Amino acid sequence: MSEPSQKAKDEFYKELPKVELHRHLEGSLRVKTMMEIVRSHNLDVKDTGYLRPLVQVAGDMDYTFENFLAKFGTLRLFYKSPEIIKRITKEAIADAEEDNVWYMELRFTPVALSQAEAFPISEVIDWVIEGVHEMEGETDVQVRLIVSVNRHEQVSVAEEVIQRAVDRQQDGIVGIDLAGNEAEYAAGPFQKMFAEAQREGMKITIHAGEWGGPENVREAVQVFGADRVGHGIRVLEDPNVVRLAEERKIPFEVCVTSNHHSGVIEVLEDHPLSEMILEGLNVTINTDDPSISRITLGHEYKTVMETLGLPVWVLRERVLAAVRASFLPPRRRQQLAYQLSEAFSNVMMNYQ
Ligand SMILES: [Zn+2]
């Protein structure tokens, strides 16, 4: 049998049903939309060529976490109106549908979205929720929201954000997330507010073991009681933390290309995804920031298979692991896992 062409393979990755657990709204803006905002709001950016390196990772720049985080600073200039915030939310969902994402937990950072025009936090949260609701019935993507706060930003503001998120649980907010500069800022000051939110029914995910060491993964699991860990790839540096995560079956939201772009993994081929799987860790595959990294989730499935050498059955297992690690109620998880498993097998059969 002849090798399938690259075109056929790309079609295969696109057709696979997908589950996204780690995607930042602020890292998902279309460049075309950004240029429209530049024009309509007279932002100080002249053309697309000038804009791109400010908001996306390009081949000729240093892959460091400072450069990566700097993109989010520029992106904060764009959230100029409730309409824009609703629009980018809807477009992020439309883009996920285009990539055949069946289920997505889209996370957003209210402080980031509120900054350009000093919008009240609670209203920003409402606009994102409205964007999601307006897409219901228009797409098949099932969307839930996660609210993020950054380690490097004010703790008192984070408290307000988390409280507002808890208040809006009925509107599809299923979890809270600690993100931001892990290399230089501690998680400790956020522990109490996360614990309170957890008692109120919120699920927790913590960015840890990405720019910081395995001790941060231990802290996320033991101190925060995290339901999932964002990235967590540096867990491998400490066998005791690996054992802890394995015993507790902690799901890891791994984002391969993002880890390369932010300088955590120097050479993409050296990404430790396979090693994590061999260690028995519960990994899932995600994008992080599709626009910043110029990728789709389909692209990530392709990367793990073609660059990291994952067999398709392992990929299938990891997609199902993502369903099981989702913040949906158990019955919905089961249903989705069943449907997705069947659809995944069908796509596999069609391309054999
Ligand atoms: Zn992230």
Structure report:
This protein has helices spanning 6-15, 31-40, 48-55, 65-75, 82-98, 110-115, 121-135, 155-167, 191-199, 214-223, 239-247, 256-261, 273-278, 290-293, 297-307, 312-324, 330-350, and strands spanning 18-24, 101-108, 142-150, 173-179, 203-208, 228-231, 251-254, 282-285. It has a single domain, classed as Metal-dependent hydrolases (TIM Barrel). By secondary structure, the protein is α/β, with parallel strands linked by helices. It contains 17 helices and 8 strands. The mean pLDDT is 95. Bound molecules: zinc ion. Zinc ion is lined by residues 22, 24, 179, 207, 230, 288. Zinc ion binds at residues 22, 24, 179, 207, 230, 288.
Main sheet overview? 8 strands, parallel
Mean pLDDT: 95
Distance between the termini: 10 Å
Any ligands, ions or cofactors bound here, and which? zinc ion
Q: Please indicate the percent range of residues in DSSP E strands (runs of 2 or more).
A: 5-15%
Radius of gyration: 19 Å
Query: What's the architecture in CATH terms?
Result: Alpha-Beta Barrel
CATH superfamily: Metal-dependent hydrolases
Helix content range: 40-55%
Estimated structural class: alpha/beta
Q: How many individual β-strands?
A: 8
